[in-house]
Design brief:
alpha/beta; 10 helices; 2 domains; Oxidized Rhodanese, domain 1; 5-stranded parallel sheet; globular; about 290 residues
Amino acid sequence: MSHFWQTLIDAEELFGLLESERPLVLFDCRHQLTAPEAGLQAWQESHLPGAFYAHLDTDQAGPKVPGVSGRHPLPDREILAKWLGQRGVETGVQVVVYDDAGGAIAARLWWMLQWLGHEQVAVLNGGVQAWQNANFPMDNEEPKMRLANFAAKKSEYVAIEVDQVEDSIASRELCLLDARDGARYRGEVEPFGPVAGHVPGAHSMPFAENLHEGFFKSIDELKQRFANYSERGDVVCYCGSGVTGCHNILAMVHAGMEKVPALYTGSWSEWSLDSTRPVATGASPG
Protein backbone atom coordinates (compact mmCIF):
# COMPACT_ATOMS: atom_id res chain seq x y z
CA MET A 1 0.00 0.00 0.00
CA SER A 2 1.24 3.47 -0.81
CA HIS A 3 2.19 5.75 2.04
CA PHE A 4 -0.47 8.19 3.08
CA TRP A 5 -0.60 11.13 5.47
CA GLN A 6 -2.88 11.16 8.55
CA THR A 7 -1.83 14.27 10.49
CA LEU A 8 0.53 16.75 8.81
CA ILE A 9 2.07 17.08 5.38
CA ASP A 10 4.69 19.63 4.37
CA ALA A 11 4.61 21.78 1.25
CA GLU A 12 7.32 19.81 -0.56
CA GLU A 13 5.54 16.52 0.06
CA LEU A 14 2.25 17.96 -1.16
CA PHE A 15 3.87 19.36 -4.30
CA GLY A 16 5.22 15.89 -5.03
CA LEU A 17 1.74 14.44 -4.62
CA LEU A 18 0.28 16.99 -7.02
CA GLU A 19 2.91 16.03 -9.57
CA SER A 20 2.15 12.32 -9.16
CA GLU A 21 -0.78 10.29 -10.45
CA ARG A 22 -2.13 9.46 -7.01
CA PRO A 23 -5.74 10.39 -6.20
CA LEU A 24 -5.76 13.63 -4.21
CA VAL A 25 -8.42 16.10 -3.07
CA LEU A 26 -7.53 19.53 -1.64
CA PHE A 27 -9.71 21.78 0.51
CA ASP A 28 -9.03 25.45 1.19
CA CYS A 29 -10.41 26.28 4.65
CA ARG A 30 -9.35 29.90 5.03
CA HIS A 31 -11.77 31.82 7.24
CA GLN A 32 -11.98 34.89 9.46
CA LEU A 33 -14.48 34.82 12.32
CA THR A 34 -14.99 38.57 12.09
CA ALA A 35 -15.25 38.60 8.27
CA PRO A 36 -16.98 35.35 7.28
CA GLU A 37 -16.65 35.83 3.50
CA ALA A 38 -12.98 36.83 3.52
CA GLY A 39 -11.81 33.24 3.13
CA LEU A 40 -14.02 32.62 0.11
CA GLN A 41 -12.80 35.84 -1.46
CA ALA A 42 -9.19 34.83 -0.87
CA TRP A 43 -9.89 31.43 -2.48
CA GLN A 44 -11.50 33.10 -5.50
CA GLU A 45 -8.41 35.26 -5.98
CA SER A 46 -5.94 32.38 -5.73
CA HIS A 47 -5.64 28.93 -4.23
CA LEU A 48 -3.61 25.75 -4.49
CA PRO A 49 -4.25 24.09 -7.85
CA GLY A 50 -7.46 22.05 -7.78
CA ALA A 51 -8.48 23.08 -4.26
CA PHE A 52 -12.17 23.23 -3.39
CA TYR A 53 -13.35 25.81 -0.87
CA ALA A 54 -14.81 24.56 2.43
CA HIS A 55 -16.68 27.33 4.24
CA LEU A 56 -16.53 26.99 8.02
CA ASP A 57 -20.03 28.39 8.60
CA THR A 58 -21.87 26.34 5.97
CA ASP A 59 -19.90 23.42 4.52
CA GLN A 60 -18.34 22.49 7.87
CA ALA A 61 -21.32 23.21 10.12
CA GLY A 62 -24.94 22.21 10.40
CA PRO A 63 -27.92 24.49 11.06
CA LYS A 64 -27.75 26.52 14.26
CA VAL A 65 -30.62 26.41 16.74
CA PRO A 66 -30.91 29.94 18.22
CA GLY A 67 -30.41 29.98 21.96
CA VAL A 68 -29.53 26.28 22.07
CA SER A 69 -26.64 25.25 19.82
CA GLY A 70 -23.14 26.61 19.54
CA ARG A 71 -21.89 28.65 16.59
CA HIS A 72 -20.65 25.66 14.59
CA PRO A 73 -22.74 22.55 15.29
CA LEU A 74 -21.65 19.42 13.49
CA PRO A 75 -23.39 18.78 10.17
CA ASP A 76 -25.40 15.60 9.65
CA ARG A 77 -22.97 12.76 8.89
CA GLU A 78 -24.76 11.67 5.71
CA ILE A 79 -25.03 15.23 4.38
CA LEU A 80 -21.32 15.80 5.01
CA ALA A 81 -20.43 12.46 3.40
CA LYS A 82 -22.44 13.38 0.30
CA TRP A 83 -20.77 16.81 0.10
CA LEU A 84 -17.33 15.20 0.29
CA GLY A 85 -18.24 12.53 -2.26
CA GLN A 86 -19.35 15.21 -4.71
CA ARG A 87 -15.79 16.51 -4.58
CA GLY A 88 -14.09 13.20 -5.21
CA VAL A 89 -13.44 11.95 -1.68
CA GLU A 90 -13.67 8.18 -1.31
CA THR A 91 -11.69 5.30 0.17
CA GLY A 92 -8.08 5.41 -0.98
CA VAL A 93 -8.05 9.12 -1.81
CA GLN A 94 -5.58 11.30 0.04
CA VAL A 95 -7.18 14.50 1.31
CA VAL A 96 -5.17 17.59 2.27
CA VAL A 97 -6.71 20.59 4.00
CA TYR A 98 -5.10 23.97 4.53
CA ASP A 99 -5.66 27.54 5.73
CA ASP A 100 -3.60 30.63 6.47
CA ALA A 101 -3.87 30.41 10.27
CA GLY A 102 -1.47 27.67 11.31
CA GLY A 103 -4.12 25.01 10.83
CA ALA A 104 -6.55 26.65 13.28
CA ILE A 105 -9.45 26.31 10.82
CA ALA A 106 -8.26 23.44 8.64
CA ALA A 107 -7.97 21.17 11.68
CA ARG A 108 -11.77 21.24 11.92
CA LEU A 109 -12.23 19.60 8.50
CA TRP A 110 -9.34 17.23 9.26
CA TRP A 111 -11.19 16.14 12.41
CA MET A 112 -14.54 15.79 10.61
CA LEU A 113 -13.04 13.53 7.95
CA GLN A 114 -11.51 11.40 10.69
CA TRP A 115 -14.89 11.44 12.45
CA LEU A 116 -16.40 9.95 9.28
CA GLY A 117 -13.75 7.24 9.25
CA HIS A 118 -11.53 8.67 6.49
CA GLU A 119 -7.98 8.28 7.80
CA GLN A 120 -6.16 9.54 4.71
CA VAL A 121 -6.34 13.23 5.55
CA ALA A 122 -3.65 15.68 6.60
CA VAL A 123 -3.23 19.38 7.32
CA LEU A 124 -0.70 21.34 5.28
CA ASN A 125 1.93 22.32 7.84
CA GLY A 126 2.61 26.04 7.56
CA GLY A 127 -0.49 26.56 5.45
CA VAL A 128 -0.76 28.57 2.28
CA GLN A 129 2.17 30.73 3.41
CA ALA A 130 4.54 27.74 3.36
CA TRP A 131 3.30 26.85 -0.12
CA GLN A 132 3.83 30.38 -1.43
CA ASN A 133 7.21 30.77 0.27
CA ALA A 134 8.36 27.67 -1.61
CA ASN A 135 7.25 29.36 -4.87
CA PHE A 136 4.83 26.56 -5.67
CA PRO A 137 1.99 27.38 -8.09
CA MET A 138 -1.34 28.97 -7.26
CA ASP A 139 -4.30 29.51 -9.57
CA ASN A 140 -7.85 30.89 -9.50
CA GLU A 141 -9.62 28.22 -11.53
CA GLU A 142 -12.73 26.59 -10.10
CA PRO A 143 -12.09 22.85 -9.77
CA LYS A 144 -14.37 20.37 -11.48
CA MET A 145 -16.69 18.28 -9.34
CA ARG A 146 -15.64 14.62 -9.32
CA LEU A 147 -18.49 12.47 -8.12
CA ALA A 148 -17.41 9.61 -5.85
CA ASN A 149 -19.19 7.26 -3.48
CA PHE A 150 -18.07 8.28 -0.02
CA ALA A 151 -19.64 6.32 2.83
CA ALA A 152 -19.13 7.27 6.48
CA LYS A 153 -17.65 4.57 8.72
CA LYS A 154 -17.20 4.06 12.45
CA SER A 155 -14.27 5.91 13.91
CA GLU A 156 -12.34 6.38 17.14
CA TYR A 157 -12.86 10.14 16.70
CA VAL A 158 -15.96 10.95 18.71
CA ALA A 159 -18.02 13.99 19.62
CA ILE A 160 -19.64 14.39 23.01
CA GLU A 161 -22.75 16.34 23.92
CA VAL A 162 -23.29 19.07 26.47
CA ASP A 163 -25.16 16.78 28.88
CA GLN A 164 -22.10 14.52 29.10
CA VAL A 165 -19.99 17.54 30.06
CA GLU A 166 -22.61 18.68 32.58
CA ASP A 167 -22.72 15.23 34.18
CA SER A 168 -18.94 15.21 34.54
CA ILE A 169 -18.61 18.51 36.44
CA ALA A 170 -19.09 17.09 39.94
CA SER A 171 -17.34 13.78 39.34
CA ARG A 172 -14.45 15.18 37.25
CA GLU A 173 -15.06 12.12 35.08
CA LEU A 174 -13.74 13.97 32.04
CA CYS A 175 -10.44 15.81 31.65
CA LEU A 176 -11.37 18.98 29.77
CA LEU A 177 -8.79 20.95 27.78
CA ASP A 178 -9.74 24.47 26.66
CA ALA A 179 -8.02 25.53 23.42
CA ARG A 180 -8.88 29.26 23.59
CA ASP A 181 -6.29 31.88 24.51
CA GLY A 182 -5.58 32.49 28.16
CA ALA A 183 -7.52 35.73 28.46
CA ARG A 184 -10.74 34.13 27.23
CA TYR A 185 -10.20 31.08 29.42
CA ARG A 186 -9.65 33.23 32.52
CA GLY A 187 -12.81 35.22 31.77
CA GLU A 188 -11.07 38.52 31.15
CA VAL A 189 -12.62 38.92 27.67
CA GLU A 190 -15.25 37.15 25.55
CA PRO A 191 -15.63 38.60 22.06
CA PHE A 192 -18.20 36.12 20.76
CA GLY A 193 -20.44 34.96 23.61
CA PRO A 194 -22.71 36.27 26.36
CA VAL A 195 -20.55 35.10 29.29
CA ALA A 196 -16.80 35.02 29.87
CA GLY A 197 -14.97 32.17 31.57
CA HIS A 198 -14.55 28.43 31.18
CA VAL A 199 -16.16 25.12 32.06
CA PRO A 200 -15.35 24.38 35.73
CA GLY A 201 -12.38 22.05 36.08
CA ALA A 202 -11.11 22.59 32.54
CA HIS A 203 -7.39 23.10 31.96
CA SER A 204 -6.09 25.93 29.78
CA MET A 205 -4.25 24.58 26.72
CA PRO A 206 -4.21 27.36 24.09
CA PHE A 207 -3.97 25.84 20.61
CA ALA A 208 -1.56 28.59 19.51
CA GLU A 209 1.12 27.05 21.74
CA ASN A 210 1.20 24.03 19.42
CA LEU A 211 2.87 26.31 16.86
CA HIS A 212 6.17 28.05 16.24
CA GLU A 213 6.24 30.66 13.49
CA GLY A 214 3.14 29.20 11.87
CA PHE A 215 4.34 25.58 11.86
CA PHE A 216 3.55 22.80 14.32
CA LYS A 217 6.26 22.28 16.88
CA SER A 218 8.34 19.10 16.75
CA ILE A 219 6.85 15.81 17.89
CA ASP A 220 9.13 15.85 20.96
CA GLU A 221 7.94 19.34 21.91
CA LEU A 222 4.30 18.36 21.48
CA LYS A 223 4.82 15.18 23.48
CA GLN A 224 6.26 17.27 26.30
CA ARG A 225 3.38 19.76 26.11
CA PHE A 226 0.72 17.07 26.46
CA ALA A 227 2.70 14.69 28.68
CA ASN A 228 0.26 15.03 31.58
CA TYR A 229 -2.58 13.79 29.40
CA SER A 230 -0.92 11.19 27.17
CA GLU A 231 -1.86 8.19 29.32
CA ARG A 232 -5.41 9.30 30.03
CA GLY A 233 -8.44 7.92 28.25
CA ASP A 234 -10.85 10.62 29.37
CA VAL A 235 -9.51 13.73 27.59
CA VAL A 236 -12.07 16.02 25.94
CA CYS A 237 -11.04 19.07 23.92
CA TYR A 238 -13.17 22.16 23.49
CA CYS A 239 -12.76 25.79 22.47
CA GLY A 240 -15.11 28.58 21.39
CA SER A 241 -17.24 26.65 18.92
CA GLY A 242 -15.63 23.28 18.22
CA VAL A 243 -12.97 24.49 15.78
CA THR A 244 -9.60 25.11 17.45
CA GLY A 245 -10.25 22.28 19.89
CA CYS A 246 -9.57 20.10 16.84
CA HIS A 247 -6.10 21.69 16.62
CA ASN A 248 -5.22 20.28 20.04
CA ILE A 249 -6.54 16.86 18.99
CA LEU A 250 -4.43 17.00 15.83
CA ALA A 251 -1.34 17.97 17.84
CA MET A 252 -1.87 15.13 20.32
CA VAL A 253 -2.48 12.53 17.61
CA HIS A 254 0.56 13.77 15.68
CA ALA A 255 2.62 13.42 18.85
CA GLY A 256 1.55 9.78 19.15
CA MET A 257 -1.15 9.94 21.83
CA GLU A 258 -2.68 6.46 21.82
CA LYS A 259 -6.23 7.28 22.87
CA VAL A 260 -7.75 9.94 20.60
CA PRO A 261 -9.31 12.73 22.70
CA ALA A 262 -13.01 13.42 22.23
CA LEU A 263 -14.33 16.76 21.01
CA TYR A 264 -17.05 18.73 22.76
CA THR A 265 -18.34 20.31 19.60
CA GLY A 266 -20.76 22.80 21.15
CA SER A 267 -17.90 24.18 23.23
CA TRP A 268 -18.10 27.53 25.02
CA SER A 269 -20.55 29.03 22.51
CA GLU A 270 -23.08 26.37 23.53
CA TRP A 271 -22.17 26.08 27.20
CA SER A 272 -22.51 29.80 27.89
CA LEU A 273 -26.02 30.07 26.38
CA ASP A 274 -27.65 28.50 29.44
CA SER A 275 -27.36 30.73 32.50
CA THR A 276 -27.91 27.75 34.83
CA ARG A 277 -24.65 26.12 33.77
CA PRO A 278 -21.71 26.87 36.08
CA VAL A 279 -18.94 29.16 34.91
CA ALA A 280 -15.39 29.34 36.27
CA THR A 281 -12.88 32.16 35.90
CA GLY A 282 -9.24 32.63 36.76
CA ALA A 283 -6.20 30.40 36.42
CA SER A 284 -6.05 26.80 35.30
CA PRO A 285 -6.42 24.19 38.07
CA GLY A 286 -3.28 22.49 39.25
